[in-house]
């Protein structure tokens, strides 16, 4: 088979790539192309599991009228949908979501799914994780992994990050180069901010180094840590604390409830859109609601709603998350909520038919034991928030004989990327 082909793009698919077919019907996935475009491509590799080729664009022969110039040279690594208008992005996210739910569930899916927009296309992220690359003069720059490859691509400040994160990143990169930290020792840098403009950060390094000077804790940078992280550990996994200064947490009010969380705590990256999600979840509660919040993290969903239900139990497997949740309960003087550190699948016995169950699981979705308990003792309502529509659809399909799908709402937490958040409300059949 020849490697060079001219194809016409049919559509965008879940995950963000464009789909085209060769003359023999072979499916090809391509980054950086839009529906309707005629492009010249080079085949890269065939994925046996899905029986498709991946390819790269060599030339755009006929461009879509929805195409626009990206504002970042590294856009394919972090925000590959910069190439289309925001209106086109939102339309495709709705189309793709509808396709996923129809493919994996038996529910009646609305013809036009509601999508809640982000007020910002750029500058919305409150957390960024950088890798590093080495320049010719042996100084280092920030980098992201190049999509589809193992190498890194140098970047300027990330356009998705908010201004304070980029300012803090610039300050810390200058310090890293001033200290002449070898590129081989650098692993990752994580920076987190709140809406007020405070930041905390941590540098992960592969050698147990010490320095004569450290970044000043002032202005936007409220806290800084250095962690030793072994070569075998994930990029931002701490194996030993080497240095710390300032505070290790941030505070963010969600619906007038101040929440404290740490650098590595799970917290949604687009706070304004997340707040809109909470406001919609609020509509599903009553003063008599007994709420179970599985995969609760620091309590970012359950606690801001504490005046809207009778009782709430927060469940999460992360010790640090539950410690913050307990602090948030105490600092806000919340009397009708408790928190427990335990894996959801190991405490399913607390689910009753009188509960409203909130679930916001990892991308892998629900554990089979949680699904089994729901089928055995179905709570009267399930509020399922997910960043992975395929596993969410798979999970709710297991429940379709017992539940009706009251609504689906999409939230654009991640503009200029293919990622989308879905909120499904399930009501038990009478």
- In the CATH hierarchy, what is the class of the largest domain? Alpha Beta
Helix-residue proportion: 10-25%
Q: How many helices in DSSP terms?
A: 7
Q: What integer is the average pLDDT?
A: 94
- Give the strand line-up of the largest sheet: 7-22-23-21-20-17-18-19
Largest sheet: 8 strands, mixed
CATH architecture heading of the largest domain: 3-Layer(aba) Sandwich
**Shape descriptor:** globular
Q: What structural class is derived from the secondary structure elements?
A: alpha/beta
Q: What is the number of domains?
A: 3
Oligomer state of the chains in this structure: single chain
The CATH homology group name of the largest domain: Vaccinia Virus protein VP39
Counting DSSP E segments of at least 2 residues, the number of strands comes to 23
What is the CATH fold-level name of the largest domain? Rossmann fold
Instruction: Encode the helix/strand succession as letters.
Output: EEEEEEHHEEEEHEEEEEEHEEHEEHEHEE
Spans of at least 5 consecutive residues whose pLDDT stays below 50 are none
Summarize the structure.
It contains seven helices and 23 strands. The chain is of the alpha/beta class and 430 residues long.
Architecture overview:
The protein is an alpha/beta fold and 430 residues long. The protein has 3 domains: 4-67, Nucleic acid-binding proteins (OB fold (Dihydrolipoamide Acetyltransferase, E2P), Beta Barrel), CATH 2.40.50; 88-120 and 270-428, Vaccinia Virus protein VP39 (Rossmann fold); 127-251, OB fold (Dihydrolipoamide Acetyltransferase, E2P) (Beta Barrel), CATH 2.40.50. Helix content is 19%, strand content 33%. It contains 7 helices and 23 strands. Strands 7-22-23-21-20-17-18-19 form an 8-stranded mixed β-sheet, with helices on both faces. A 7-stranded mixed β-sheet has the order 10-9-8-11-12-13-14, with helices on one face. α2 runs parallel beside α7 (389-397). The radius of gyration is 23 Å and the shape is globular.
